[in-house]
Design brief:
With 99 residues, the protein is mainly α. The chain is 68% helix and 0% strand.
């Protein structure tokens, strides 16, 4: 049975995604990126679980949406982790220059 793929909303970060991460922007980038997506995933999973009246097709479509959100959250978290490592590397390089 083919499933309908709905477009999952994307979340734009209020900060410039191309700007280098700073210690000050760390929490905001995490909150507005992967954590927001994972929170949406949790809420939608709860709605799905609570909706016992949904037919099989509707539940399947919602499960596909959940999978898309989970993948999006994973990608966002991996990008966040890479940015965090870049921040660490920059700070280590700066501390070496000060020696």
């Amino acid at each position: 049975m083919p499933t309908t793929r709905r477009e999952t909303p994307t979340f734009s970060e209020p900060t410039d995604p191309h700007a280098a991460m700073t210690v000050e922007s760390l929490a905001n980038r995490l909150r507005e990126g992967p954590l927001r997506t994972l929170l949406t995933l949790q809420v939608r999973a709860g709605v799905l679980a609570a909706d016992g009246d949904a037919d099989h097709r509707a539940r399947l479509e919602r499960l596909v949406e959940l999978a898309q959100l989970a993948r999006m959250g994973t990608v966002q978290f991996q990008a966040f982790t890479a940015e965090l490592q870049s921040l660490i590397d920059r700070m280590v390089a700066q501390s070496r220059e000060l020696r």
